[in-house]
Amino acid sequence: MTPPMPPTPPPTPLRPATVAVTAGRPPHDPDNALNVPLTMASTYVAGGDVEYGRYGNPTWTAFEDALGALEGGRCLAFSSGLAVVATVLELVGQGRKVVAPRHAYNGSVMQLADLEARGRITVELVDIEDTAAVVTACSDAALVWLESPTNPALEVADLAPVIAAGHEAGAYVVVDNTFATPLLQQPLALGADLVVHSATKFIAGHSDVLLGALATKDDELYDVLRKRRELTGAVPGTFEAWLALRGLRTLHVRLDRAQGNAQELVRRLGDHPAVGEVRYPGFGAIVSIVLAQGELAADLLTRKTTLWVHATSLGGVESTFERRRRWKSEPATIPDALVRMSVGIEDVDDLWDDLAGALDDLTGEPSTTTTSESGVLGGP
Ligand SMILES: Cc1ncc(COP(=O)(O)O)c(C=O)c1O
């Protein structure tokens, strides 16, 4: 008698670097372009599945397939990260409560405040690192908004117990995964209902695109949010989706390099007398420092470098930094002298020489300039 055949092992799932490079590509048929073309179309020949440019676009779909594969869910792209935030907050019923980090991205906090001021929802802002307090706040929530690490305080939430507490209350649990990216944190695998991205940042990665995205494993939620995107028209630009997909192809390489640079800079910054505090969650490419000599020193620093660019936003290949409290909307609990640094993929020694030179100047020089303040509402 022939022995029974061993069961066929399940296929090994592709690793994230391979997914980033391969997901969302056209099939390997002769003469197919390797990359999904840029389909510029406001309308399609009638009688098919799409019909109109607000309902779908093959270039968006390719981006969504790739990011969805990395997050472990189905993805929808939007015109910006804040368009995603607005769409998701529409899930909350009239008068119901949202729990959110007091130090979440200030644009998200401003949207919550605006909805609360208009009587749409109530909001409880929490210290996201105080898990017990967050769990208590979740008990009557309709939606729990998490951002981890937070922008720019770099606080980290203990996601699993907070997600469980949100679900216990019957709430949606949403995680803004912009800082970690799906390569460092996969909230859907931890049970979150939705992941939100400002794809403007690390996903696109080159400071040339505004784009948002969400991902979910829940088909019903996907359909509801897709419908809302159709209704509001908060759709992505086609070229933006194409550029973001091109950026996504190298996310793992960029992040690896930027994170390595960040870790090395954290090590060196800790010893510099001009730096009072270094905040770094241990992963990722964003570092916040608090200048020992206060906010004027922080402002001076951002004007003294040649490689580091004084600019808001983050997650690009180039290193940028800014004093966050120059934005009126940044809460007073963020230190005045906090400089958020988005570490890029340049040579770390060049980055350090530029930064250390400026920091050395600060310690030898009294800070006399006035502080800068931006007139614009909130900085990304
Ligand atoms: C964590 C986080 N979420 C959301 C947003 C908003 O994204 P966008 O600028 O693409 O609208 C930002 C922007 O800085 C962010 O940092």
Question: What report would you give on this structure?
Answer:
The chain contains twelve helices and twelve strands. Helix content is 35%, strand content 16%. A seven-stranded mixed β-sheet has the order 1-7-6-5-4-2-3, with helices on both faces. Strands 8-9-12-11-10 form a five-stranded mixed β-sheet, covered by helices on one side. With 380 residues, it is α/β, with parallel strands linked by helices. The N and C termini lie far apart (70 Å). α3 (81-89) packs parallel to α4, α10 packs parallel to α12 and α11 packs across α12.
Quaternary organization = single chain
Helix content: 25-40%
Give the overall shape: globular
The N- to C-terminal Cα distance equals 70 Å
Q: pLDDT under 50 segments (min length 5)?
A: 365-369
Bin the strand percentage.
15-25%
Rg calculated over all Cα atoms: 22 Å
Question: SS-based structural class?
Answer: alpha/beta
| Strand element count | 12
How would you summarize the topology of this molecule?
Blueprint: H1 16-22, H2 58-71, E1 74-78, H3 81-89, E2 97-101, H4 106-117, E3 122-126, H5 131-138, E4 141-147, H6 159-168, E5 172-176, H7 181-184, E6 194-198, E7 212-216, H8 219-232, H9 238-248, H10 251-269, E8 275-279, E9 286-291, H11 295-304, E10 309-310, E11 320-323, E12 338-342, H12 348-363
Parallel strand pairs: 2-3, 2-4, 4-5, 5-6, 10-11
Antiparallel strand pairs: 1-7, 6-7, 8-9, 9-12, 11-12
Helix pairs in contact: 1-2, 2-9, 3-4, 5-6, 10-12, 11-12
Pyridoxal-5'-phosphate binds next to α3 and α4.
List its salient traits.
380 residues, alpha/beta, seven-stranded mixed beta sheet, five-stranded mixed beta sheet, 16% strand, binds pyridoxal-5'-phosphate
